[in-house]
Each structure stands twice: as structure tokens, then as C-alpha cells.
Automatic annotation (TrEMBL):
The keyword RNA-binding does not apply. Gene3D superfamilies: Globins (1.10.490.10). Residues 128-154 are annotated as: Disordered. The keyword Protein biosynthesis does not apply. This is Group II truncated hemoglobin. Keywords: Heme, Iron, Metal-binding, Transport.
Length: 154
């Protein structure tokens, strides 16, 4: 019999773990000279909202859709921001630092799948944020899974 495969949300530690991650992440982001200026007018609820988004993506409850307006709302926050590749890369680096700081699981399977989503999502955010970009306004919230390497459960 095969053991039930947990969602990435469960493996990460659920909503609480993702909230710890985004709290730490935005502390690092706002203090950073490369990405900080983009977040100068950040809504104080932003870390909690991004934690909801990540939870929904990784197989948790659809709270971003229910409470924040789903994909169109997320997309709308990136349009026109003209994110540069240097800023995208710094955003990724700071998220990895935050994941280490708060003790997000660091097993190879989890981090590989987690970073797969982050790489994909940040590249889309950069492209959607360029002047004149016309990405689809409506799309489902992506649901990210383990891909080719499910979690090692002994
Ligand atoms: C996987 C990649 C990403 C995800 C999942 C993500 C997620 C989100 C979400 C869910 C929001 C809206 C939060 C709300 O409802 O209040 C948001 C806003 C925003 N994002 Fe992203 N984002 C990503 C990449 C990036 C990158 C690479 C940058 C810039 C380097 C960026 C800059 C911003 C900014 C400036 C806002 C608006 C913040 C504010 O003023 O409140 N995002 N993001």
C-alpha cells in the first residue's frame, strides 16, 4: 500500500508556517535597497495576503480566492511595476533566506518543488509587470504539486 502523499501546504507546516515565512520575507524585502523601493507603499496586510496565496497554490484552502479576489487581484498588483531581472532575482534570494530563517522544511524534494513554483511565478510577475504587457486578466490560481520527486517518507 502506498502512503497518502501530503500536499506541499501540509508538508510546509500549513498556514502558520507560511505566515511566518512571509512575515520574515517582507522584513528582509523592505530593508533591501534593490527591491525595497517597490514595496514602499505596501499594504500592512501584504505578508498575510501572500501567505494565503501561497497556501492556495500549494494545496491548502482557497482563501486568496475567497477573501482577496483570486488571480485577477494578484495580477493587478504587478501590472505596470516594471520589475527588473535584478529585482526578481533579489526577491527570490530573500525568499530563500526567509525560508531558512524560519525553518521551512529543507528536504530536497520540498525545496525543489517550492523553488520550481517560485522560479515560474517570479518570471511571470516580471513579464506581466512590463509597460504595455497584456496578460490574460482571468486565470485560475495555479495548483503546484511535487512533480517528479514526491516527498521521501521512509
Ligand atoms: C512567485 C512569485 C510571486 C508571487 C506568488 C507574488 C504574490 C503577490 C500577491 C498575492 C500580491 C497581492 C497581495 C494582496 O492581495 O495584498 C502581490 C503584490 C505585489 N507584488 Fe508580488 N508576487 C510574486 C513576485 C513578485 C516579484 C518578483 C516582485 C518584485 C520584485 C513582486 C512585487 C509585488 C509588489 C510591489 C506588490 C504590491 C505590494 C503592495 O504595494 O501592497 N512580486 N504579489
Amino acid at each position: 500500500m502506498t502512503a497518502e502523499v501530503p500536499t506541499m501546504y501540509e508538508w510546509a507546516g500549513g498556514a502558520e508556517a507560511l505566515e511566518r515565512l512571509t512575515e520574515r520575507f517582507y522584513q528582509l524585502v523592505t530593508a533591501d535597497e534593490v527591491v525595497g523601493p517597490l514595496f514602499a507603499h505596501m499594504d500592512p496586510g501584504h505578508p498575510a495576503h501572500v501567505a494565503m496565496w501561497l497556501g492556495e497554490v500549494f494545496g491548502g484552502p482557497a482563501r486568496y480566492t475567497a477573501e482577496r479576489g483570486g488571480y485577477p487581484a494578484m495580477l493587478g498588483q504587478h501590472l505596470g511595476k516594471s520589475i527588473t531581472e535584478r529585482q526578481r532575482r533579489r526577491w527570490v534570494d530573500l525568499l530563500v533566506d526567509a525560508a531558512d530563517d524560519v525553518g521551512l522544511p529543507d528536504d530536497p524534494e520540498f525545496r525543489a518543488a517550492f523553488m520550481g513554483y517560485i522560479e515560474w511565478g517570479t518570471r511571470l510577475a516580471l513579464s506581466n509587470s512590463q509597460p504595455g504587457a497584456t496578460p490574460p486578466r482571468e486565470a485560475p490560481v495555479p495548483h503546484w504539486g511535487w512533480g517528479v520527486a514526491p516527498p521521501y517518507q521512509g
